[in-house]
Design brief:
The protein is of the alpha/beta class and 569 residues long. The strands form 7 sheets. Strands 20-19-18-23-26-28-29 form a 7-stranded parallel sheet, with helices on both faces. The two termini are 39 Å apart.
Length: 569
Amino acid sequence: MKSAERQEHIAALIEERGFLSVGELGELCHVSEMTIRRDLERLSALKRVQRTHGGAVALRSASSGDGNARQFARVAGLLHERLDVLITTTQDPRYDVLTPELAGRSAPLIAESLPIQGAETLVAVDDYQAGLSLGVSAGRYVQDHFGGHACVLDLTYHLSNTQARSRGFLDGVRQTVSELDDVLSLNPQSRGDMAYQLTRDALSVHPDTNVIFAINDTQAWGAIRACKDLGLAPEGTIVCTFGLEGATLRDELMDGEYCRFGLAMFPEIMGQTLVEAAIAAYNRRPLPLRLSTPFAVLTKETLPRFYARTEDGWQLRPEAVRGRLTLPANPDGSAQEPDAVRPSRIGIMIRFMEHEWYRNIVTAMRTHASPLGIEIVVLDLEQTLKEELELRRREIARCAAQEVAAGDVILMDGGPTAGYLAEELRSRRDITVISNAVRALDALADVPDITLISTGGVLRRTTGVLVGPTAESALRTLRGDKLFLMVAGITLDFGLSHTDIGEVTIKQAMIRSAREVILLADHTCFGHESMIQVAPPTVVHKLVTDNALPASWRLDLSKLGIQVALACA
């Protein structure tokens, strides 16, 4: 394919799918990533696509009526009032590509953790070197306590900076241990509940695991809870966290049970640096491309050198900052420069507001900015995403309920849409519902005209579903007209997949018990492969999804004989 033809093909693919990464485009076009990057630069110059971190997004995304328009409109509403400087931590191409336009050309941009097009500077830790330092410490511990044999569970994430943390950690372990027996890398999506469940499952399948690495405190805390619930001996397992972002893991480090050391990123210093960088950018002072914030591997013995435990929580010791840490090459104290003009409002876009890292950054920013008369405006994008996704799931449930007729015996799987579907079925009469979803059973328990059958089984509290041999045995004696199935991932190659083996087996049992399989899945499930395959996509008779699923996916599924119904959110 000639370059001009390939570029037209790339532009058409991006227009159709909204966003594609460099790697995905390379596979689709059968060329190298370097070639794709050159093509994208050409298309961007021609204003055919918009380049973003790791790929490109369609120009229509900001204004079209496609499935993501509502999300973009809400973000635009949040930024309606003018901001003097915008700090972005979104790490999401759907928002990153819109950030310059939404903020306004006159508002400078500061990036945190990951680079973004148009930013004045990036404020971030050196992720690889920090991970390497932590890995060396872990390797030395393995040498001293585990006979030099390491079996590692790597709880990572898909972004380039978190991947660098994992690479650095594993390289550090390899440099110091006699033998790295095995490495299992899993992606809990930066969520504590998924980190908990994946760690439990991984330790059950790989009981020799003795080192667990987590790219942030949220995942580390999920792993620690899993170790505690499994009753693992602390002397045989270590959990290494990248962050020490707040009280949770600092307290755990001082307890000295599973967390023996952690990589401290110092959100207090990050917050101050972001404010100073924002002031410098507002005054149009030159900034380096990157401001590297400090890190340190801390133990129970060394943590008190940097932090004091007070009634108000952990407080960074100022003398430790001055004496032990190398601060970024920031115009330190630029707010105090005689000719500095202070911005009135600095906005910070945050996707993972539940993480202590971002909560403490915001606290540090406000502490530093308040005496200067600067307001810090927090834009919680994750909450916006959650609200939008819940709306879409409600519409999927409403559409799915139309498939139920009087006299039907339906099987209802556990999943995020199950509760909404149960609520929609409360007004139905003369139906039988068989379910392992506690939320669905509770919602229908007081409806006299619905026959309700529980599969029984062991309660998995993290997801609110019943699993195990008892539930599977019950399903062998039951037959349903329709199964409303939910899974975590869907691809054409791997099929339907899920994260938990206990839930997978009961989903498979439900499929065997149903005459018709109706899959309920929002657009976020597609294109992702979870750890365990449930079934090939051809088991599905009908899909109910939202209108953000690209047309190419709908076409591919239709070719498999799957009827696709769109719920309009």
